[in-house]
## 1
Amino acid sequence: MSLRRFLTTLLALGCLSALQPSRLQAHEAGQQMVDTATALLKALSAEARTKAQYPFESEERFNWHFVPKERNGLSFKEMPPEARLLGHALLTTGLSYRGYVKATTIMSLEEVLFGIEGADPAKRDAARARRDPEKYFISIFGEPSMKGTWGWRLEGHHLALNFTVKDGSLFRSTPCFFGSNPGEIRQGPRTGVRPLSAEEDLGRQLAKSLNDDQWKKALIQETAFKDILTEAKRQVSPLSPDGLSDADLNADQKAQLQTLLKEHLFRIRPEVAEAAWQEILASGPIHFAWAGSREPNQGHYYRIQGKSFVVEYDNTQNNANHVHTAWRDFDSDFGLDLLGEHVKTAHQPAK
């Protein structure tokens, strides 16, 4: 498929508008997801469609992880060319421009890792099987429709995106995981590339702005954790201790905390992220906690936690050049709140 034809297809589906920070109505975003997911399924053979699509109630919907491993669903590698393009089009319906760039850059790092791990000819085949930018998998749960509840997932090494849609307008976009290995490319033609640079730099900037009293509250451990504490759990609860409340920050620091939090949240398409942002602002205090060093190239961890959510950032592996970030919702991961409504509605006794 030519670039011109690809762009024409995206325009017809309305997907390019998802790359702009416009305030579309939620039902328009839902329609884009429905149209694109439907087009993707139609571009697949019956056998491939069986691999890509599951019932909405399937336990597979909760089978997620961010490590390199064998996965269910249909990989880009297994798709015909037109379906691969539509898979990326589906990705743009869920992410902002910023989020899409981060996601595709993360996917591209598999080729960097292959170059490192496959340098030894004896290990090249194993490295190719393990590190492949096309081994990212799409799964669609239920039937894409403007009525009822359905969802979709894109997942592979260091990228796990989960979306749940109800009646075309209610969205849930967690668990949401972005990682980066390397955190910074330090050799070769792409030297200096840092997919999650803002998440690191803004977090350190806030941590370094804290005075002694604030730092005592924010620092929860002298040594950074080895990884995010929520791991790839199906459901998570608030983490303890809370750390430093935003009530204890000055105006500039509060603005820094909000900028950092929005850097994580607004990887999702803007109007969906904005609705979540307004809920966060109205829900009460937000806490910031740090573990490890505040200096570059040393292990560090932070989290931002509110009444309904937690964001975690960890950079300790590979000499603090391997980033994991996750956004989790205590009640709505995988659209569990919507699923409860779905089950109640779908299984009402006949009158």
## 2
Amino acid sequence: MQPDALDDQLIGQLVDRARASGLQLTGTGGLLQQLTKKLLESALEGEMTDHLGYEKHDPAGTGSGNSRNGVRSKTVLTEVGPVEIDVPRDREGSFEPQLVRKRQRRLSGVDEMVLSLSARGLTHGEISAHLADVYGAEVSKQTISTITDQVIEGMAEWQNRPLDPVYPVVFIDCVHVKLRDGQVANRPIYVALAVTVEGTREILGLWAGDGGEGAKYWLHVLTEIKNRGVADVCMVVCDGLKGLPDAIAAVWPQAVTQTCIVHLIRASFRYAARQDWDKISKALKPVYTAPTEDAALERFVEFSEAW
């Protein structure tokens, strides 16, 4: 599919919608609600497994004296917004969830936990250590191990899900998250976000890198996205990392590589004193919001004359 085969007006609408909504991961309107629900429910299911002593649907539970008894819905308030979760119940009513306690309505630190535990490439030890921090010292190592296994299983389902064959716009960036495996260290988390052909927003995946952000690792990430069914992308929005356009072209040869507006503006600041940054940012806005290339060039001439 050629990039110009998609209606220009549709691309414009999608990019405008993405820019207006920010495509943020966290906060109100962020993209992590569904992923937060998946992670919390996986951890709670691991707690129930530890409480009962057998896996869900395991014949070992027959005649054990206690068993699973459905779920109850509950809405918790987090940094990524309100999230409705299904909390498992047991017949005896003796199950006391630890991650989301009874009558607890607000959870803190969820955004970092979800980013950390949802990324492909983390070791079992890293995930286990992070969950041990979340649960605290009162939870045994065996319980943490059971919960870790359940979380890994739940995340693997999300990480390997098939994707759409075409995305008009894909945003890629790298964020850094603190992870513990013996000691706390910053790890780069590679993030791929997309606007679908219906205009909705979707997280394509999260990947944990070993070092700094690099085009070689991005090539690995983009190749995996393609292997999950994404045959074509019309536009990839990214920062100015050296070698990244070549990596994008190697995976989707017809894709347009668009440098992120935020990174372009930041690059412009290198040529100005700090006290002028705010004025320059406002003066550049008519350039990158112009409806046509000719109009953008006119606005840029005006900017050049003013600065």
## 3
Amino acid sequence: MRVAVAGSQGLIGSALVTSLRAAGHTVVRLVRREALSDDEFSWEPETFGVPAESLAGVDAVVSLGGVGIGNQRWTGRFKQELRDSRITPTEVLAEAVRDAGVPTFVSASATGFYGDTGSHEATETDSAGEGFLADLVTDWERAATDNAGPDTRVVLLRTAPVLSPKGGMLAKLRPIFKLGLGGPIGDGKQYFSWISLVDELRAIEFVLDSSIAGPVNLSAPEPVPFGTFVSALGHAVHRPAILPVPGFVARVAGGEMAEEMILISQRVVPAVLTDNDFSFDHPDIDTALEYTRA
């Protein structure tokens, strides 16, 4: 299979390129800078778009771009940056996929689509929730589905926070927990959905090799209350995780970002993957955190 990957320099994208090549696939990287090697093509959504030659003979395009949601407080300017880094690039890639006749377009999305699910197990058939993230993800997915064309199989990767030994949220949390300063945020009862980087990559390759279309929850099958997650993380780094952060303190410190990323409950389950007999290497939080210690 010949696969073009946009966003190939991020945590997921760089690992996906390596994994696809190890599996024997040919990978073309679409980069937002000067192309530096034969496997790279430069593209720019706001100006010249995607060069037609970059998609010649491509079987699938995987779009993984976007500024990190948790990079900073959500000011009005930053929220616009989050939208700009997702909506227009996805539209341009989807149009290029349509024009080139690429049969499969796999577009990044997020479990933020569901908003606050409480104790309800959200599956791919659930409708969008409320809040900035839910609205952003809805528009992000629409940019893919509305522009890829009727003959393209579109897969929407609703990814939960990715647990990795090399970066992501654990890179920020682990140093705090190693100092014994970790603990539950809010009441700790809100559900937390997640997926290991290994299972994220395996799931993406699984859908590439399948006929699955539409939204796919990339989350582990056993979401846990946030209090359980922090206890497991404390155990993984051999430190107590007993210093609570009251919800109002988190709101003051993190504003809208803390409200929608930490304090709401997201109990998301991967119904499409499990219905298609996908098996997880790290189905529970303990095995996932053990993997991230590598």
